TrEMBL record:
PANTHER family: ALCOHOL DEHYDROGENASE, ALCOHOL DEHYDROGENASE-LIKE 4. This is Alcohol dehydrogenase. InterPro entries: ADH-like_C, ADH-like_N, ADH_Zn_CS, GroES-like_sf, NAD(P)-bd_dom_sf. Homodimer. It is an enzyme of class 1 (oxidoreductase). Keywords: Metal-binding, NAD, Oxidoreductase, Zinc. It comes from the Eukaryota. Its cofactor is Zn(2+). It holds the Pfam family ADH_N.
Amino acid sequence: MELRIRVLFTSVCHTDLIYWRGQDKAQRIYPRIFGHEASGVVESVGEGVDDLEIGDHVVPIFNGECGKCVYCKSKKKTNLCEKFRVNTMKSTMSSDGKCRFSTEEGKPIFHFLNTSTFTEYTVVDSACVVKIDREASLKKMSLLSCGVSMGVGAVWNTADVEEGSTVAVFGLGAVGLAVVEGARSKGASRIIGVDVNPHKSSKAQAIGITDFINPKDLDKPTHQRIREMTEGGVDYSFECAGNLDVLREAFLSTHDGWGLTVMLGVHPTQRLLPLHPMELFEGRRIVTSVFGDFKGKSQLPHFANQCIKGVVKLDEFITHEMPFSRINEAMQLLSDGASLRCLLHF
């Protein structure tokens, strides 16, 4: 039930940065091959795999779908899988608890997020591999492994944003801008982008924000400014920064009675939610979204076709391209906030 994939394109995501830096001390599992946003071609197929074959164009996904467990059969209740759900602690293959990578001396090199794509060849459980139309650009389809699916899916599936709604997006990295793209495609009437990096404004405007707020320029809390701009608060807010103080601002920026906050940022610290339980009685809600609530194997091919048709525009997300040998430069670009997705090719 495994496949070997020849990786053609991969990119660096903030999650890779977080675990590469060891920001979560409990998850310092080394040596390890990072990377989880990629596309490639099936090079060989293991026993028991009947839905993929050699030569298929594919994207690996960190949140798998076996199709058989009670979670996968739950239809709309969850997109988690009992065995192949996202798990940053998981570092071996599911079938035997062993690694498929090793050093020249035979010592194990551990896996990451069900995928490990910073390598020319990777071995992945078939539940974590999605077949893509061969007419699609593998370069662009690599974005569907994580960032774009996360952001657009959070708008389409998790929040189900209606036409004419007001939206605030906190953190304008790749995931945040994917939220903007999703809100634009849904016909949101106002999309407010929030980021402390002033250089994010022009890219966000090109994708679809109507307003830009830099909290450093304000003399009041960001949520107060957004409430003033929107007659009480936005209908939906999305936290894409991985910062609990930002999460609180996002929560308070929504309209009481019906406001919904969707958390997308990765929070590596041990701090707990900065909310008092009684604040929830004002009608605001907070949820999170895993992989944009897409069921990977069954729903991602349709989403890919929508991207091919131009419903979702992918070109703006690729800001840099370079050979894989320059991966350190790509990591630095993302760390400095100078790139959205730096596409690496072998």
